[in-house]
Design brief:
Elements: H1 2-19, E1 27-28, E2 40-45, E3 52-62, E4 67-68, H2 73-93, H3 98-107, H4 115-128, E5 133-136, H5 147-153, E6 160-163, H6 167-178, E7 182-186, E8 190-194, E9 200-209, E10 217-224, E11 230-236, H7 238-241, H8 251-260, E12 263-273, H9 275-290, H10 295-306, E13 311-322, H11 326-335, E14 339-343, H12 348-357, E15 366-369, H13 376-387, E16 392-397, H14 398-418, E17 421-425, H15 429-443, E18 446-451, H16 457-462, E19 465-469, H17 476-480, E20 483-485, H18 490-530, H19 541-551, H20 553-557, H21 567-572, H22 576-581, H23 588-612, H24 620-639, H25 645-664, H26 673-676, H27 682-685, H28 688-715, H29 719-724
Parallel strand pairs: 2-14, 2-18, 14-17, 15-16, 16-17, 18-19, 19-20
Antiparallel strand pairs: 1-20, 3-4, 3-13, 5-6, 7-8, 8-9, 9-10, 10-11, 11-12, 12-13
Helix pairs in contact: 1-18, 2-4, 4-6, 8-12, 9-10, 13-14, 14-15, 18-23, 18-24, 23-24, 23-28, 24-25, 24-28
């Protein structure tokens, strides 16, 4: 009965969550753990796409000596227009002169290039080094034509959309379009760019090295159709690129500056290759791709042979805006006693900046940035330095975390758990899952992970309760999670209202079902012991079946509609959520109290029936059963905290069913039907004696509990009742 009731209850909670208009689009994918939402202590969240929108805006282009922001993009545009108009005027005058005039630049000793040519190179690199495909929506009626005629037929800018696996790349290509260099076509072997003057430049794609989370960079080798030049372009995270580009004195500093503004940085570089260099590379590359052993390592080694002394072109910064209402939501979760850990793959500075702007770390709080450590001794020193600080947020990188966990796992987790907020940056997906398991193992508390991309799936599945956000990165996370939401702010209502209700209701329902079973067992035990332990069943088949189903099912199950606090109150006072994590709604103490209540009531009902009905002993079944049903209905009424009209309907429906069944189940109410041959006497039931005796037994079994409950609410009221009064 407990199993069935709880499973039906969980299904009902899931239905309520999905039907909640305040959090539209929420999907419950696991019907077995809605109560976990009510007792979370740790929330581990991803940054990009979870706290932020994953909608990028191009903010900054830095060339080393000069930096362009949003207000100076028009300068870049005029430089691009000028440089391309010069190239084309040379081209039209003399088709060969354009090649030699640009050649000496790359082969001669390093000449300081003009700003204009550097901008030209940088924008061209950004326009070529990516994995973006322009897509043209076909106009209605021309769907039958081939791809090429479709492109010819509608080359207009309004009709073009870009598709790529990462929103960063789309932003960069849209930006080059805004300054005049437009990607108009791409297939497997070539790319076409449109200059501000409307000329089409074609580049053949010779090789492409896609982005991976290990290498943190992507590269492409292209050949210019007009001049035949071969160029290797590359872009990636500053960590990966700083060792690849030629020596410079500004990259690290500028990356740090941009990261402190909360921008995501990408470093763009190039290398001109001669025909011989490329042919040599290609043969080695193909050879490596054919090797049977360690293929990935060999391929990577060949590519790395190219990645040396590359010319640094520029540094780009894009901004990822915070999602709506992230700040109040994080504030609410913090007040609810939930500790929030942000695990992200981003740079330390970017992560810290977002942590501050999202109020994950409050403005007044100190932040302890864990210095990079590589050895046991360094980790020991750094942990000691951290131990001296009180109530400060921790920011740590993935590598340092790995070292600390290797040597000082217990100490580190103990210290980190005391922090109000923890930010782990440069985390790999496996590290995210490892941190979740650590918290579960060391604290024994409930953890919840929330993320939006494929890289968060391992963390979501490791946590006690996984929440996925349907974002720009597809549905991997939301399909792997237990609950899927559309925006981060919905998590507040999901935990404070639905989590709270599910947990409280399941606790009440579970204990009530146990009470219902125990009370009838106690009565049978008392009955048998009075009759010299004779194995006579007190209630015949149908009464036993009807007791747990038709007579008490509806009122008991209506406990899933009970709520102690109105949703608005629960959201206004998130502190109420703290009480739930202590687990006081369902503990050994409450369970034993219910066992005692069951034994007390079962004993009273049976003894009362035996004492008051010595003369009409034949009718003991009818009397005790009637009193039992009434007691159960009254106990449900006692347990309920907020009445719902369906609860009232359920109470009266059950009572009605019972009264109706007295008429046609009369043979069940005799004892041992055959031996006594006593049938239910309708005349007896309607007498005043029967009614007052049943009432007396019921009152004795229930009144003390009502009084106790009243006194308890008077002298130690629960925190929520102080708010509702």
């Amino acid at each position: 009965s407990l199993r069935v009731n709880l499973d039906m209850g969980k299904a009902a909670y899931g239905w309520m969550i999905m039907k909640d208009d305040n959090i539209p689009g929420t999907v419950v994918r696991t019907s077995t753990i809605p109560e976990e939402l009510g007792r979370l202590v740790y929330l581990l969240t991803d940054k990009t796409g979870t706290l932020t929108q994953n909608e990028m805006i191009f903010k900054r282009l830095h060339l080393g000596t000069v930096s362009y922001g949003t207000d100076t993009m028009d300068e870049i545009q005029s430089h691009i227009i000028n440089s391309y108009s010069q190239v084309h005027s040379q081209n039209s005058g003399n088709s060969t002169s354009s090649t030699p005039s640009r050649k000496p630049q790359s082969s001669a000793p390093k000449v300081r290039k003009s700003v204009s040519s550097r901008i030209h190179e940088a924008v061209k690199a950004i326009a070529l080094c990516h994995n973006v495909t322009p897509v043209y929506e076909s106009r209605a009626g021309v769907s039958g034509e081939t791809e090429y005629s479709e492109v010819d037929q509608d080359f207009s800018d309004e009709n073009r959309t870009y598709q790529a696996s990462s929103p960063d790349e789309v932003t960069l290509v849209q930006w080059t379009e805004s300054v005049g260099l437009t990607l108009v076509n791409r297939d497997l072997t070539s790319m076409q760019l449109k200059t501000p003057g409307g000329h089409i430049l074609t580049y053949y794609i010779l090789q492409i090295f896609p982005f991976t989370s290990e290498s943190k960079r992507m590269g492409i080798i292209v050949r210019d159709e007009s001049s035949g030049e071969i160029t290797f372009y590359m872009k990636g995270a500053d960590v990966a690129m700083s060792t690849i580009v030629q020596y410079n004195d500004w990259l690290e500093e500028e990356c740090g500056n941009m990261a402190r503004e909360g921008l995501r940085t990408l470093v763009v570089a190039k290398k001109s290759l001669t025909e011989e260099q490329y042919q040599d590379f290609e043969s080695r590359y193909n050879q490596a791709k054919l090797s049977i052993h360690d293929r990935n390592l060999k391929v990577a080694a060949v590519v790395e042979s190219l990645e040396r002394e590359m010319e640094l072109l520029c540094l780009t910064g894009v901004e990822d805006q915070l999602q709506a209402d992230v700040r109040p939501t994080l504030e609410m979760l913090r007040n609810a006693g939930i500790k929030i850990w942000m695990l992200t793959g981003d740079k330390l500075e970017t992560a810290t900046c977002i942590a501050k702007s999202s109020h994950l770390v409050s403005r007044t709080q100190d932040i302890h940035i864990f210095r990079p450590v590589t050895t046991r001794g360094e980790a020991h020193l750094e942990l000691n330095a951290f131990r001296r600080k009180h109530d400060c947020a921790l920011v740590i990188s993935g590598d340092s975390l790995e070292v600390c966990l290797k040597y000082y796992e217990h100490e580190f987790v103990e210290l980190a758990c005391q922090c109000p907020a923890v930010v782990c940056c440069r985390c790999s997906p496996t590290q995210k899952a490892h941190i979740v398991k650590l918290l579960q193992h060391h604290t024994g508390k409930r953890t919840c992970a929330i993320g939006d991309g494929g890289n968060d799936v391992s963390m979501i599945q490791a946590a006690d309760c996984g929440i996925g956000i349907e974002g720009k990165e597809g549905k991997q996370a939301s399909l792997a999670a237990d609950f899927s939401i559309t925006q981060f702010k919905h998590i507040g209502r999901l935990l404070m209202v639905h989590g709270r209700n599910s947990y409280k209701r399941s606790a009440a329902l579970g204990q009530f079902v146990m009470h219902r079973g125990l009370i009838i067992s106690t009565m049978q035990a008392v009955f048998s012991s009075v009759f010299y332990f004779a194995s006579v069943p007190l209630y015949q088949g149908f009464l036993m079946v009807g007791y747990a189903t038709i007579y008490t099912m509806f009122p008991v199950f209506s406990l899933v509609l009970d709520q102690d606090v109105k949703p608005e109150m629960a959201l206004l006072y998130p502190e109420l959520y703290k009480d739930l994590t202590k687990g006081r709604s369902l503990s050994f103490k409450t369970f034993l109290i219910w066992v005692l209540i069951s034994i007390y009531q079962g004993g009273i009902l049976m003894y009362g029936a035996l004492l008051l009905f010595e003369s009409e002993f034949v009718h003991v079944v009818a009397i005790s059963f009637t009193a039992l049903i009434l007691t159960e209905l009254l106990m449900v009424a006692l347990t309920i905290r907020t009445w719902h009209w369906l609860m009232v309907v359920a109470e009266f429906l059950s009572l009605g069913c019972y009264v109706a069944s007295l008429a046609f189940l009369n043979e069940y109410f005799g004892i041992g039907r055959v031996s006594f041959g006593a049938f239910l006497d309708v005349a007896f039931i309607t007498t005043v004696t029967f009614l007052w005796k049943v009432s007396a037994i019921t009152v004795v079994s229930c009144l003390p509990l009502y009084i106790l409950k009243y006194l308890k609410r008077k002298f130690s009221p629960p925190s929520y009742s102080k708010l509702t009064s």
